[in-house]
Each structure stands twice: as C-alpha cells, then as structure tokens.
Write a structure and sequence with these properties.
Length: 303
C-alpha cells in the first residue's frame, strides 16, 4: 500500500478527475449498468465511493481489477511497462483514551491513502475466473426506479406543482413539476433521485451537516451537497438500468466543477462518501458503522 500523506492523496485523486473534466469527461455521470460495477477480481468485492467513478472512467472491456500482490497470489503477473491506476482507502488510527479525561475515549481518525491497481487486461496468466456480472433485470428501468423509490424507508413527502424541483428540509418535502414537463421520463426520475439523495441528509435520516442548520430549499451550485446529489442519483440511475441523464449547460457544468476542485481538493472525495451513504439509505442497506466518527469516513476502500 502507498504511504501517501492525506493531503497528497486528496490532491492526487482530485487532479486526476480534473484531467478528465478538461477532456470533457465527467466520471460520476458515466453509466456502469452495461458492464457492471468495477470489481476486485481477488476479493470479489465491488469498488465503492470515489473508486467506483475512477475505475468506471477507465472504460476497460472487463470491469475487473487487482493489485500486483493479488495477481501474484493468483499465479498471474502484471505485464511489463503497464502503468498502474490508483484507488483510495482510509487507514484508521487506533482510538486511544483522551489526555484530558479517562472516561471518554478519543475519537479515532482516518488518513486517506492511495494504492495501485491494474485491470485484468494489463495482466498475464490470470486464471479463467469471471465473477458473474450484476444481472440486468428484465424489468423496465423506469418501473424498477419507481419500485426502488416506493421501497425507500422513511420517504419524504412528495408534491407535484410549479415548474421547479427542490427539497425543503424544514418540511421534509420534495416538490417536483409534472413528469410530462420534463424532456423525458428518464430525466424526471433522475431529477427526483437527486432530490431523494438530498433528503437523506435530513435529521431523521443521515443527519448531514447542511440539514442540521438550514431551513432553505436552495442548494448552492457546485457545493458539496450538489455534488453529493449528482453522484448519488447517477449511481441509482445505473442501478435501475438507466443511462446517466443528459445534463444542460455541459460546458458551464464542467467549468464550474473545474474551478471548485482547483480550489478545494477534498470536496470530491467527501461528496462521494456522502453519496454512498445516501444510496445505501435509499436502498435500505445497513451501514453497519459503530461510531459517529466512523460514519464520516464510511469504509476502508481496499476491496
């Protein structure tokens, strides 16, 4: 594993995404439902959070990755002159008792680090092992989306009126305009999924900081919450079998995030973490994290 310092890891990953944006590629808008989620071939675990988008953007025919050490354990090896790709993981420090009090333990801390990965096409002698790709259900993607939304625990109220889509934390209510006013039904559901991801931040759900203090229905453009909603909705679109929706003002969108990421090297990683938590909540998956501090960082992304 890499010994990259926390600040260096944030910069390395964010700069990589900046390079994609400068080419007109928005990693978190890419769909993975055709090829399946990127998966570690050795552990058979899917990559999550920012790693999902970093590996999806590579666009390999096979979505299987592994470290050089894992390849060796499988009797394989990395081809000569192959360049590694990078993913991130959180390295946790051991919680120790506070210096100030013997009764309350100090909160554990985590450091973001990077590690090198290779796609199976970059390796030789890989055993003929193929993890079953996520089966695409035979349901209509829009029906699947409607079903998923209907099964969301503790859903916010939904009202249809006006010509603006937004979420009001103080009322825990989503407002959408009529589906036939959207360019397509896919666009309608993608927009609704954005609002549902925002609603997972409510105090009755995941209690994200913006919704602990705000009563406004406005989410600022190019904010952490806006990126969280985009990433979470994009994941759920692929989950339902929908291609990621077309978005308006593409050049303005890309330019806005380029400016934000050049100024803030941590926003990208933390938005991906928050989006993952929001997705898990909507899908009814248990987070399984024991402490309040750990929920900030979610999981060790080593796969």
């Amino acid at each position: 594993m890499s010994t990259t310092k926390k600040s260096e890891a944030f910069s390395q990953i964010t700069n990589l995404v900046i390079s994609y944006l400068e080419k007109g590629i928005v990693p978190w808008k890419l769909s993975w439902h055709e090829k399946g989620l990127p998966v570690n071939l050795y552990s058979e675990k899917p990559y999550r959070s920012i790693n999902l988008w970093l590996l999806t953007a590579l666009d390999y025919d096979e979505p299987f990755f592994l470290t050089a050490q894992q390849a060796k354990k499988m009797g394989a090896s990395v081809k000569d002159d192959e360049e590694p790709h990078f993913a991130v993981y959180w390295e946790w420090s051991k919680a120790q008792k506070s210096e100030l009090t013997k009764e309350k333990p100090a909160k554990p801390s985590a450091t973001l680090k990077t590690y090198a990965l290779f796609n199976v096409s970059q390796c030789v002698n890989v055993p003929d092992i193929r993890i079953a790709r996520q089966k695409r259900n035979n349901h209509n993607p829009l029906d699947r989306c409607e079903e998923m939304i209907g099964e969301m625990p503790n859903r916010p109220t939904l009202q249809i009126e006006g010509r603006t889509a937004y979420y009001e934390p103080i009322l825990d209510r989503i407002t959408m305009f009529e589906p036939d006013k959207f360019p397509s039904l896919e666009y309608y559901y993608a927009t609704l999924l954005q609002q549902l991801i925002m609603s997972t931040g409510h105090v009755s759900r995941l209690n994200r900081k913006p919704y602990q203090i705000t009563e406004t229905k406005e989410v600022l453009p190019f904010s952490l919450e806006a990126l969280t909603a985009d990433m979470g909705a994009s994941y759920l679109c692929s989950y339902c079998g929908m291609d990621t929706w077309n978005f308006e003002n593409r050049s303005e969108y890309i330019e806005g995030w380029l400016q934000r990421f050049k100024e803030d090297k941590q926003c990208l990683v933390f938005a991906a973490l928050q989006a993952l938590r929001g997705v898990k909540y909507i899908l009814g998956e248990s987070l399984g994290y024991a402490t309040e501090t750990q929920t900030t960082f979610l999981e060790n992304e080593t796969a």
